Amino acid sequence: MTDEVPAKGSILGKLVPARYVLALLGSIGMAIVYGLKVNLSVAMVAMLNHTAIKAHGESSHSEHASSNGSQVEECLPPGGNATAGVAPENGPFDWSEPLQGTLLSCYFWGYLVSQIPLAHVAENFSAKWVMLFSVAINVVCTLLTPVFTNLHYGGLILMRVLEGVGGGASFPAMHVMIAAWAPPTERMVMSTIIYVGTSAGTALSILLAGVCSANWGWESVFYVMGALSCIWMVLWIILVQDNPNKQRFISPEERQMITSSLGTEQKVEHHPPVPWAKVFKSVPFWAILIAHTCNNFGWYMFLIEIPFYMKQVLKFNVASNAALSAMPYFPMIIFSICLGKLLDSLQAKGKITTTVARKTATSICTLIPGVCLLILCYIGCRHYEAVSVMSVGIVAMGAMFSGFLSNHIDIAPNFAGTLVALTNTAATLPGIVVPLFVGFVTKGNQNIGAWRIIFGVTLVLFALEFLVFVFLGSGSEQSWNKAGSPKDPEAKDEKTPLKELPAKS
Predict the structure, then answer these.
(1) pLDDT: which is higher, 503 or 156
(2) Which of the two ends of the chain, N or C, has the fewest CB atoms closer than 10 A to its terminal CB?
(3) pLDDT the model gives residue 9
(4) pTM recorded for the entire structure
């Protein structure tokens, strides 16, 4: 750490403690990253020439149906009128389903390679500036997306890969910030505030992208959202620092409270080296990694592909698609916060351990979405019933913030950034696979039968996640968290929840 900066209060600090200024701006930052991540899923619905793409796929579609010797199940638009909204909402690009999958997945190419090196930078140098980089590169690439896309779809791929490089820095950076700023008894609350920004950003992005593309064309999605995001960067630079000792706009009392609760009153010259061998031999770490990877397959299924399911199969128009796709993310925010507060309260009263809290939340974000996908396989063309079932599944997935995503700081707060980079790198693979998989299965075959295959595979992965985490997960701090320190104690007894309240990721 650098030398301690003298603490002086501010008008803002008297209204909102410095640690919650960080949490609020961190939440907005995560909302920006996720908003700019998912806007293409909605904008692409308006970018595509659906008539031309359908014409290309009709021959293979009819051959597929005849070879099966059966009729495929096709839905009418909402209302049951086959001519309702028959005039197609076409854009300029004639991209096949596999190419669409590539364009949606290429974000994760950059996301895959950036997390571990940028986590190292965040832990050893500055998480504040890593997070700023994460948002800044997303903003710049978003503003340039219309220009590069009109040149060639390769330009869109380049912009999305660079956005992914920046996006990969966000979770490791914020994990490091939480570990440095959140008192143990407030980790649950601060983490919830920060990471529900991902849900808020997703919902607002879907809504805004739908409004912009429907009224001003697909290019406006990127110009409007990119411009609005610039304001955050100025506030982040001025109001946020890496830790309380560097923060000027903080009261001496708040600084003392945070540093004493975290045991960071003494300045540390060097961050301890990561005990790689012990990390990769840790069963709780592998439980998080497997849960994170399996859950992300389902998460990206809901996040990226549901707008296409609603457009191509359920036949909703662009405006209705955006509104209905965004709808579940607002109750998801409320559910995430309430669940986090409930588990926090039960831990504080000693009624449950950290491990029980993590396993309970992870069970919710696997079992309920899994059941919803099973129902979707057989609900057919009942449009609004299908939307309701999808919404319940998305809301339940908000439990992941209190579940396995919080678990990194439980088991090793000193290496929280590195651990989340490792698990999130593995969990990035579904982001690449899901759009390609969906594009392959639905090529010339956009019907409920094809999507049953997609939902069935996702359901199997949810079941695997549930079994692995329930049997192998743990909320105890691991002994290797103290590697490189003078003392290397055994894992803490998880029956002291106030000393181990996890930070959510």
Answers:
(1) 156
(2) N
(3) 57
(4) 0.75
